[in-house]
Amino acid sequence: MAWIQIRIYADKADADALSDMLMDIGCPSVTFMDSKNNPVYEPKPGEVILWPETTVIGLFEANHDMQAVVDYLQSQHNKPLNYKLEQLEDKDWEREWMDNFHPIKFGERLWICPSWRDVPDPTAVNVLLDPGLAFGTGTHATTALCLKWLEQQDLSGKTVVDFGCGSGILGIAAIKLGAERVIGIDIDPQALIASRENAERNGVADQLEVYLPENQPEFSADIVVANILAQPLRELHEIILGFLGDEGAIAMSGILAEQAQSVADVYAPFIHLDDIAQEGEWTRVSGVKK
């Protein structure tokens, strides 16, 4: 199906109102986009933070009367409407999305391979991944930082906790790298489904257990990886450290460079910290339990 979109350039004070107007006239999809590459950091639960300069994008079927849309928005908006109409090419969007993912190598021996692509090196440690609706493809710097760290660890026979497991990418990689048992924990039931399906795809389902936080059993792990965000890493440090056995190793990411020291300071009393690793604007805090 062909589509047309209206891009409305606004500030954060007007963005919500414009979104509501679009929804009121039957717009099937409204999204927000940063107009000026201004970072937005950790929102509180249930909070939506918009950028100072926000683009509101409304998507309509190609035969929709867009002049009527513009006229309605202008009549309801108390400022001149700064907008642009764009015809979208009719594409197989699922195929377009899939074509953007390619196998990626981490360290000397680990490859993350989309399940629909050929494995580049059959002799390497290969993780076949379908992200589904859960986060984690290996392309983001935070995931890459954790994968590179895991690839450097001796995981043989170890128990690993993947806290905030998402697609299961870190836990499955740990198993492929030698871990005996992985416990994945996530607040999103969809993440648990994706992790199970990816574990089955990789033939390691019998070594991966997944739980919502309220259902997790008591256990002690040799390794903990947590690729979430700085704020929950700080706030949940007692829970996260509680998973880690004596002299266990931990790696945490989802941390912006300016947040890294604050996370390190929370864990320093309990962890012999490594140097903070950085990739772009993202960092990894890691170390061994004291």
TrEMBL record:
GO MF entry, a single one: protein-lysine N-methyltransferase activity
Record localization: Cytoplasm
InterPro entries in UniProt: Ribosomal_L11_MeTrfase_PrmA, Ribosomal_PrmA_MeTrfase, SAM-dependent_MTases_sf
Reactions catalysed according to its record: L-lysyl-[protein] + 3 S-adenosyl-L-methionine = N(6),N(6),N(6)-trimethyl-L-lysyl-[protein] + 3 S-adenosyl-L-homocysteine + 3 H(+)
Binding site residues for S-adenosyl-L-methionine: 143, 164, 186, 227
Signal sequence bounds: none
Superkingdom of source: Bacteria
GO cellular component, one term: ribosome
Keyword terms, alphabetized: Cytoplasm, Methyltransferase, Ribonucleoprotein, Ribosomal protein, S-adenosyl-L-methionine, Transferase
BP GO terms, sorted: methylation
CDD domains xrefs: AdoMet_MTases
Annotated protein name in UniProt: Ribosomal protein L11 methyltransferase
Record organism: Pseudoalteromonas piscicida
